[in-house]
Design brief:
By secondary structure, the chain is an alpha/beta fold. It contains 12 helices and 16 strands. The chain has 2 domains: 218 residues, Alpha-Beta Complex (Spore Coat Polysaccharide Biosynthesis Protein SpsA, Chain A); 157 residues, 2-C-methyl-D-erythritol 2,4-cyclodiphosphate synthase (60s Ribosomal Protein L30, Chain: A, 2-Layer Sandwich), CATH 3.30.1330.50. The longest helix is centred in the C-terminal third of the chain and has 14 residues.
Length: 386
């Protein structure tokens, strides 16, 4: 199942007001667009993330997400519908994916479980959208007076992401060109496509006005007082080769590490430390070495998944400390690159990672250069469940 997420961020935010479009405003120390992008970029079911933007906002875009592994953004259109269509056309020119999710950049609190549920629904449906059943009584107004009460039975509030089989949505958008439909489910409905309703997280709000921004900030400000510590340890055998991958950095060497994936012993220890802090098994449970899809896989993928697990719980990674045990290669010349890569993979600031290396004074299997060991300690902060 290949799934690409198309994030629509081409709006000017006129309803919100202000000099900066809302998708580039700060929310809890991070631009709104970045929060939305990272939610999908770190999700294990999403293969790629593409952004549709307004080129007038190039500097804001680069400041928000320019350091993330994204393809060049697609230039959007006058309306949201135009922007989505242009994004789909850009994907189609690159042999589009099997499935596509459309997400509004202004919904930065989207959670991993909702993304998962929409993706899985596409296994059996042509389309599926995150949505919330209406629970408040609805009133139709005549000026400032009530004209009627609307029956809320069977009424849902549409959220994003909205997922579809790519070819079906692409063709539906081509047919709907020139209309002004407010979401992609409406485009699909106009083409006769059935669309499933998937319950959305109530916090998956769209930021439309300054009050919404304040509410989102309060939601993010939930106390993270459940502090967890996890310990990870891993070992890989050394065999003849020409490079070793440690902390995601390739180091020239006359040996390599043997393993099912890229055998990055440091990142494997980091994953186990995070899983340990969450009480969620170990790397072998999540990525068994009997599964051929992980053969040769870069271990950064496993770290992204582990970080996503923390975010699913509404938590953050506070600190990660890694120690390597080996005689060679010498780490000092590569230490800064390894620290930078660790911080990038964990999506934390560099001051929240530590890396040390030591030898075993030529004793044991590491001393005989038969293998390399790594240990890691991860500190994770989670919301208190009361």
């Amino acid at each position: 199942m290949t799934v690409t997420c198309l994030i629509v961020a081409a709006g000017s935010g006129e309803r919100f007001g202000g000099d900066i479009p809302k998708q580039y405003l700060d929310l809890g120390g991070m631009p709104i667009l970045r929060r939305s992008v990272l939610a999908f970029l770190h999700h294990p079911l999403i293969n790629a993330v593409h952004v549709v933007f307004n080129p007038k906002h190039e500097k804001l875009y680069q400041a928000a997400v320019g350091d993330l592994p994204l393809p060049p953004p697609t230039i959007g259109g006058i309306t949201r519908q135009d922007s989505v269509r242009l994004g789909l056309e850009a994907l189609a020119s690159q042999q589009g994916p099997r499935h596509v999710l459309i997400h509004d950049a202004a919904r930065p609190l989207i959670d991993a479980n909702t993304i998962t549920d929409v993706c899985k629904a596409l296994e059996t449906h042509a389309g599926a959208i995150a949505a919330k059943p209406l629970v408040d009584t609805l009133k139709k107004a005549d000026g400032a007076t009530i004209a009627a009460t609307i029956d809320r039975t069977h009424l849902w509030q549409a959220h994003t992401p909205q997922g579809f089989q790519f070819n079906a949505l692409y063709q539906a958008h081509q047919k709907a060109k020139g209309q002004n439909l407010t979401d992609d489910a409406a485009v699909a409905e106009a083409a006769g496509l059935p669309v499933a309703l998937i319950p959305s997280n109530p916090d998956n709000m769209k930021i439309t006005n300054p009050d919404d921004l304040g509410r989102a900030a309060r939601l993010l400000g939930q106390p993270l007082d459940d502090i967890r510590t996890g310990f990870g340890f891993d070992v890989h055998r050394l065999i003849p080769g020409n490079l070793i991958t440690l902390c995601g950095v390739e180091i020239p060497h006359n040996q390599t590490l043997e393993g099912h994936s890229d055998a990055d012993v440091a990142l494997h220890a980091v994953c186990d430390a995070i899983f340990g802090a969450l009480g969620d098994g170990d790397i072998g449970i999540h990525f068994p070495n009997t599964d051929p899809q992980w053969r040769g896989k870069a271990s950064g993928h496993f770290v992204h998944y582990a970080v996503g697990k923390v975010r699913e719980r509404g938590g953050v990674i506070a600190h990660v400390d890694v120690t390597l045990l080996c005689e060679r290669p010498k780490i000092s010349a590569h230490r800064q690159a390894m620290l930078a890569k660790l911080a990038e993979l964990l999506d934390v600031t560099p001051d929240r990672v530590a890396l040390k290396a030591t030898t075993t004074e030529r004793m044991g299997f590491t001393g005989r250069e038969e293998g390399i060991a790594a240990q890691a300690v991860a500190t994770v902060r989670l919301p208190v469940v009361r």
